[in-house]
Design the sequence.
């Protein structure tokens, strides 16, 4: 990966605002990131297969359970780092 390539990240969050905040924070630190927002777990397996992200971020909410995200991640993208915020 070249220095100018954006790092693909997938963010599972009930709202879009935290995703935009994460993207802005990384860019302010000089890290080119391409954050993809996933609002429901139904879309996660296809997104992981299509994007091949470097990191999966989970912002737990009433309808987003970290254990469910971790189980999907383990089955669809074994070895992908998962960070629960």
Sequence:
């Amino acid at each position: 990966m070249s220095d100018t390539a954006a790092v693909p990240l997938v963010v599972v969050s009930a709202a879009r605002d935290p995703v935009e905040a994460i993207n802005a924070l990384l860019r302010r630190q000089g890290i080119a990131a391409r954050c993809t927002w996933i609002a429901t777990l139904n879309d996660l397996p296809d997104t992981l297969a299509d994007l091949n992200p470097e990191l999966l971020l989970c912002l737990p909410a009433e309808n987003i359970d970290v254990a469910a995200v971790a189980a999907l991640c383990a089955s669809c993208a074994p070895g992908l780092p998962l960070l629960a915020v």
